[in-house]
Structure formats: structure tokens, C-alpha cells
Design brief:
The complex is a heterodimer of chains A (283) and B (320). Chain A is 41% helix and 23% strand. Chain A has helices spanning 2-18, 63-71, 110-123, 132-145, 161-174, 191-208, 219-225, 254-258, 261-277; strands spanning 21-32, 35-47, 52-56, 78-83, 86-87, 95-98, 179-183, 211-216, 228-232, 240-245. Chain A has a 6-stranded mixed sheet with strand order 6-7-8-3-9-10, with helices on both faces. A 4-stranded antiparallel sheet of chain A has the order 2-1-4-5, covered by helices on one side. In chain A, helix 3 (110-123) runs parallel beside helix 5 (161-174) and helix 4 (132-145) packs across helix 5. Chain A starts with a helix and ends in a 6-residue tail after the last helix. Chain B folds into 3 domains: 2-57; 65-98; 108-316, MetI-like (MetI-like fold, Orthogonal Bundle). In chain B, helix 9 (191-216) runs antiparallel to helix 11. Chain B starts with a helix and ends with a helix. Classes of the chains: A alpha/beta (283), B mainly alpha (320). The A-B interface holds A 71-73, 90-93, 95-97, 99, 101, 103, 105-108, 116-117, 120-121, 124, 155, 157, 175 and B 221-222, 224-225, 227-232, 235, 239-240, 243-244, 319-320. The structure holds adenosine-5'-triphosphate and magnesium ion. Residues 63-64, 183 of chain A line the site of magnesium ion.
Chain lengths: 283, 320
């Protein structure tokens, strides 16, 4: 009897692991001044635990909307979203967000920005709040992870764009989220900084093993980082057009991949989707 | 080295004679002493001329531009004031009952030689009158800030509150401040609280409105951060709303102080007692026009100082 139960539990866990984040028939309609605007239609997506997913699509198709739905910042007009078997009812610390424009609070130092997150998640938990020293250690560790210990006491407007984005990542990681949501995290950065941060993010993700969903415009970035690339059709009523599996061995090295046959094949697949089958008509 | 000490010695003598005139306390005289000493120090002066001449020879155009920009800053206001004085003199020549600048100046010197005399409640020095007005403004304004700023936060934060209060605010805000005076007299049955009430009611609107506008302008990004971090309402207010709204709030405070100072003169004219407004009225009854003109300048200068002080405080609080 017990055996059967435990077996069932394992099955359930496995099922949950396969559908760690789940979107079921999600529709999103915004009511605007000019009437209703159907942004997303019938989105179905299952994300495995520990998987790295990229969402790619033309500007305005609804990528950020998908991410905000998973974050719980917006509620779907239709359909259901789950995370770890539970319905997503609102934002929560188990789903941390790295925002498109870093969204650091300009009046706090880098350290204070990270500490604010740590304090809330670990310092105010009902069961056993952690001591101040422990919280401080967490914030310090997060900043060290992104290599910014020296910028602890600087305000966001005193550091470069790349550093800001790294603090944003540190803030999200410091919460020890189960799912990391990234909205074009490197979109505003130059190519060199971008490449460096991509490599750093790959290392960090390998270490922490958390699930990630990243919105991006960049085909190379999507393939380099992801296990699967979700390609979205154009809006209004955008949906998932295709999902591409990226079966490249990890750790991946940017230089090796440049000459890799599989990589280039995947790359042309995504490009074909974006610029042939779902080309954005010039406005 | 010896040159310095000698010049200091000689300066001491000068300062001592000056001290008897100024009699403002040793601290102030001391700072003056040091300043003058460094200038009088020939070695230092030589160095300075060397520096300036070096600057002149190296970058003459830059030096010129500097002088030019300084003149650009200094000259226009000076011209403005001279123009005002000229117009004033001209008008006073036309109307013999209006005293000119010189006459007013003499009267002012006399008046401010003893600003704090006290000959009973109806005859006090101009200093007491200014202080009495400032005290009323401080009280009325302080109460207005105490009520208006939190109210602004609540209105900005909650859509419901905003919709609830907006008709009331739109209705009451345009009402002339003095229209509130009878209500104050009726409720408080005394002149002084009524004057403070008028200050309160006229100073509260800019603070409510600016604070609430600031709160409603908090970027959605920051609120999303608050949501994702699941911050408590207290943390949202202290870590996000308050720092963001502070510049808006300070604008409101500045406008409020301006209005309060504007209104106090009129209110005091009606309520009487000690105060700069009452003083103006009193001098009008005495037909002492010089004093009325002085009062106008005093009101202007005090208002300017209040504004300046608040701007400095606002600068200190800005996070940029
Ligand atoms: N709050 C909202 N109210 C009304 N319409 C909205 C709202 N948010 C998004 N939309 C609309 O939904 C569509 C998708 O927006 P979304 O921000 O998700 O696009 P995106 O794919 O992230 O674009 P980008 O790549 O430029 O960031 C757009 O047409 C946008 O105008
Ligand atoms: Mg977007």
C-alpha cells in the first residue's frame, strides 16, 4: 500500500517536473480606449523544471505579456497558468523577474536594491526569519556572483548599463527563485557587453539549475542560451507558431558554435520563421 | 612669514575699531579677520597674481569668456533694480504724497535701527511684527503639511480616494482664501486662530495636489518591482513612493509657503493684532507711506528668503 502511494507520488512529481510551468489555453485581451485588443490567443506551453526557454518574435507580438502573465503581474482573460502544480494568482518571490530596463530604484545603492529583495523573501518569512547578518551575507553573495562587489555602495546612475543589468540579475537571483523570468535582459546593451553577460548568465544558470524564461529579439542569444526556442506569430491574437528544440551540448562556447553545423541550421530555422513565414509587414 | 604676522597685527588694530562699530560677536569678526588677512598677505597676493597672469597668457579667450559670463549674470539684475528705482523716483516726483527711494531709505534705516521695541500691544517694532506673521504662517502651514501630505499620498495611491475627493478639491480650491475668514471667526471666535485657519486652508491645496500627482506618476516599473518582491505597504511607501514623490512634494511645499505668505498680509489686515499685515494697515491709518513701502519690501524679501530656504532643502533631498 505504502509502496503504491510512494510510486504514485513519484509519478506525480515527475509529471510536475515535466510541466513545471504550465500555460493552458491562455487568452489575453486588453480593454483600451479604442475598444478591446486581443493580444494573445490560445497559448499552450509546458516548461520542464530546470529548462531554459526563450521567447522570440517581432516587436509588439506579446512576448512581454506572456512573461508578465507567468510573473503574475497581469491576469489572463481566459485560461489558466500553473507553477509547480499551483495556479498562479499573483506575483510571488518564487518567480523573480529581471526587467527590460533593469528597474533598479535610483535612490538606493546597488547593495540596498538587492537587500530589499532578500529582506522580504528571507527576513519576513513567517516560519523562521533569518538574522540581519545572514541577510547581508545573501545580498553580498548575490552581488559577488555577478562580479559587482566593488559597486556595492554605488547608486544605479553611477554605474554603466551593463552593470545595472547585472545588479538586476543579482536582485532576482538573491531571491533564490524557482523560476527566473527575463524580459530582454540585455536588449539595451552593446554587443560586447551583451556577449559577456550571456556567458555569465549561462554559468550562473548551470550552477543554480533554476528554470528560466527569457524574452529576446536576438536569434543568436536565443539559441545559445536555450533548451527550447518558442517562436511567436505576429499580433493581434498572437500565438505560438513553432517550438524549436536546441539539442546542443552544454557547456556551450560561443566561438565553437559559430562553425557548428547544427547551430547554423537552428539559426536559419529561426530566421526563416521570423523573416519568411511570419515577416512583419512594414508599418 | 613675517609679512603675514605684520599684516595680521595691523589688521587686528583695524578690526578692533571695526568691532566696536559692528559689535556682532567675536566669531564673525574672526572669520572676517582671516579673510582679510589672506588678501593682505603680500606673498599670497603675489602668488595669486602670478596664477591669474598665467591664466591670462595661456587662455586669454577663456578668461575673457569667464568675465563675460559673470557680467552676464550680474549686470541684468542690477539694471533691473536701477530701472525700478528710476521709475519709482519719477513717479514720486509726479505725486508728492508718494515718498521717493531716498526718503524711504532714510526711514528704513531709522526703523531698522530699533526693530524690537515694545510699547504695548499696538505699538511694537517691525521685527516683532514680522516674527508674529512668520509664527502664524508656520503654524497654519505646518498644520496644512501635516494633513495635506498624507492626504496627498492616500489620494494618489488609491483610485477610489482620488475619485472621491476630486469633486471636493475642484470645488474648494478656487475659493479665495479670505472667503474662509468668516468661517474661522465663527468657529474659533478669535482673530488669531481664524488667521491661522485661513493660512491652513489656502496652503493645503498645493501640497495635496502635488503629492498626489507625484504618487500617481510613480513608474509602473517600480510598482512591478514592489509586486514581484511582494513588498509590504509600509515598505512600498518608505522605499518607493516617498523617495520618488519627494521632489513633487517639495514643489507643493514651496508653492504652499508662497501662498501662505501671500495670504497672511491680507488676513492680518482684517484680523488685527501684531503682524506685518496689521502693521501695514496701521501705518496707512497713520498715513506713514514710507513705512508701507518698506513693508512691501520686507514682505517681498521674507518671501524670497522662505523660497530660497525651501529650494535649498529640496535640493538636499533630491536623489539625483
Ligand atoms: N496594458 C496594456 N493595455 C493595452 N494594450 C497593451 C497593454 N500591454 C500590451 N498591450 C498591447 O499588447 C501587444 C503586445 O505587447 P507586448 O508588450 O507584450 O509586446 P512585446 O512582444 O513585448 O513587444 P516588444 O518586443 O516591443 O517589447 C502590443 O500590441 C501592445 O500594444
Ligand atoms: Mg516587451
Amino acid at each position: 500500500m505504502e509502496k503504491i502511494l510512494s510510486q504514485e507520488k513519484i509519478n506525480l512529481d515527475k509529471a510536475n517536473a515535466d510541466r513545471y510551468v504550465q500555460l493552458e489555453n491562455v487568452d489575453m485581451t486588453f480593454s483600451t480606449k479604442k475598444g478591446d485588443f486581443n493580444a494573445l490567443k490560445n497559448i499552450n506551453l509546458s516548461i520542464k523544471e530546470g529548462e531554459f526557454i526563450s521567447i522570440i518574435g517581432h516587436s509588439g507580438c506579446g512576448k512581454s505579456t506572456v512573461l508578465n502573465l507567468i510573473a503574475g503581474l497581469t491576469q489572463p482573460t481566459e485560461g489558466l497558468l500553473f507553477c509547480a502544480g499551483r495556479e498562479i494568482a499573483g506575483p510571488g518571490p518564487e518567480r523573480a523577474v529581471v526587467f527590460q530596463n533593469h528597474s533598479l530604484l535610483p535612490w538606493l545603492t546597488c547593495y540596498e536594491n538587492v537587500y530589499l529583495a532578500v529582506e522580504r523573501v528571507f527576513g519576513a518569512s513567517a516560519e523562521k526569519p533569518e538574522s540581519k547578518a545572514k541577510l547581508k551575507a545573501r545580498a553580498d553573495a548575490a552581488l559577488e556572483l555577478v562580479g559587482l562587489t566593488h559597486a556595492n555602495d554605488k547608486r544605479p546612475n553611477e554605474i554603466s548599463g551593463g552593470m545595472k543589468q547585472r545588479v538586476g540579475i543579482a536582485r532576482a537571483l538573491a531571491m533564490e527563485p524557482k523560476v527566473l523570468l527575463l524580459d530582454e535582459p540585455f536588449g539595451a546593451l552593446d554587443a560586447l557587453t551583451r556577449a559577456n553577460l550571456q556567458d555569465e548568465l549561462m554559468k550562473i544558470m548551470a550552477k543554480s539549475g533554476c528554470t528560466a524564461v527569457m524574452v529576446t529579439h536576438d536569434v543568436d542569444e536565443a539559441i545559445l542560451l536555450s533548451d527550447r526556442v518558442v517562436m511567436m506569430t505576429n499580433g493581434p491574437s498572437a500565438g505560438i507558431g513553432e517550438i524549436l528544440e536546441v539539442k546542443l551540448a552544454r557547456p556551450r562556447a560561443r566561438l565553437d558554435l559559430a562553425e557548428d553545423k547544427d547551430y547554423n541550421h537552428l539559426r536559419s530555422e529561426v530566421l526563416r520563421f521570423l523573416y519568411e513565414r511570419h515577416a512583419k509587414k512594414a508599418a | 612669514m613675517s609679512a603675514t604676522s605684520i599684516s595680521k597685527e595691523s589688521l587686528k588694530a583695524i578690526m578692533q575699531s571695526k568691532e566696536t562699530v559692528v559689535s556682532k560677536g567675536a566669531a564673525m569678526a574672526d572669520t572676517e579677520k582671516v579673510e582679510i588677512a589672506t588678501v593682505a598677505n603680500p606673498a599670497a597676493a603675489k602668488k595669486m597674481t602670478k596664477k591669474t597672469s598665467a591664466l591670462l597668457s595661456n587662455k586669454p579667450s577663456k578668461r575673457k569668456a569667464q568675465i563675460y559670463s559673470v557680467l552676464n549674470v550680474v549686470l541684468p539684475p542690477v539694471f533691473g533694480i536701477l530701472l525700478l528705482l528710476a521709475v519709482w523716483t519719477l513717479i514720486s516726483h509726479q505725486t508728492p504724497s508718494l515718498p521717493g527711494p531716498l526718503k524711504t531709505w532714510h526711514s528704513a534705516v531709522e526703523l531698522f535701527s530699533d526693530p524690537f521695541y515694545n510699547h504695548g500691544p499696538n505699538d511694537q517694532g517691525v521685527g516683532w511684527n514680522i516674527l508674529a506673521s512668520l509664527q502664524r504662517v508656520a503654524l497654519g502651514f505646518g498644520l496644512a503639511a501635516l494633513v495635506g501630505i498624507p492626504l496627498g499620498f492616500i489620494i494618489g495611491r488609491f483610485e477610489f480616494m482620488s475619485r472621491m475627493t476630486s469633486p471636493i478639491i475642484s470645488l474648494l480650491r478656487p475659493v479665495s482664501p479670505l472667503a474662509w475668514l468668516p468661517i474661522g471667526l465663527l468657529v474659533f471666535k478669535a482673530a488669531n486662530p481664524a488667521a491661522i485657519w485661513v493660512i491652513f486652508i489656502s496652503a493645503i491645496w498645493p501640497m495635496i495636489i502635488n503629492t498626489s500627482v507625484g504618487v500617481s506618476k510613480v513608474p509602473q516599473d517600480y510598482m512591478n518591482v514592489a509586486k514581484v518582491l511582494n513588498l509590504s505597504e509600509w515598505k512600498i511607501v518608505t522605499k518607493i513612493l516617498f523617495p520618488f514623490v519627494l521632489p513633487y512634494m517639495m514643489t507643493g511645499v514651496r508653492l504652499s509657503i508662497g501662498v501662505a505668505w501671500l495670504v497672511i498680509v491680507a488676513a492680518e489686515m482684517l484680523t488685527g493684532g501684531v503682524g506685518i499685515g496689521f502693521w501695514v494697515w496701521d501705518e496707512w491709518n497713520n498715513l506713514n507711506v514710507e513705512h508701507i513701502i518698506i513693508a512691501i519690501f520686507v514682505v517681498g524679501i521674507v518671501g524670497l528668503l522662505l523660497e530660497y530656504a525651501l529650494t535649498q532643502i529640496a535640493k538636499k533631498f533630491s536623489y539625483e
